[in-house]
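Exercise 7.
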Amino acid sequence: MRKFFKNFMILSILFILFFAITAYSYATNISEGLSEDIFRLHILANSDSDEDQALKLKVRDAVLAHMKTLTKNTSDKQSVIEMSKTHIADFKKIAEKVIQENGYQYNVNIEIGNFYFPTKYYGNISLPAGNYDALRIEIGEAKGQNWWCSLFPPLCFVSISSGIVDKEGEEYLKENLSEEEFAIISSSSSEVEFKFKIIEMINEF
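Solution. The predicted structure, written as tokens, is:
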């Protein structure tokens, strides 16, 4: 009996280790895949005051209006990143102009890099926590609530005000993400939600 219990404990530990390693490997692969396929726009307001939050959205609208004309012929993430690097000075000038026109003197810091994001919900689309490439715009002290969207796939130009990814946006995602990645961020089935939670938990850890 003691030998049976010992063997049972060993098998249980091995099973747990196997599950943990498999879950970690799966979460890492999905996270790396999403990170490789998605390029985000991230704007941080100076503070959480109503005025600073409203200013953040005005900067967003001006930057996106200019960016839309620049990206209309781009078809992949790297092209959007290279375009953003080339025009980063223009984005800074646009943001500064909007800020000054609204009576503020905030500094603007813009950089392109790989940043950690917590889990984010974009209506019916959810992106798990993890590191993503992004164009980050920091207004003033950048201590206020942030706003984000995806420059590639181009969700920034789809239903900005509603915050819901419509059919056109979903098609962009389907075309540029793997089948498993798209299922993870869009499905509401219990199995997929469980996988999402594993990815979220491991990345946050």
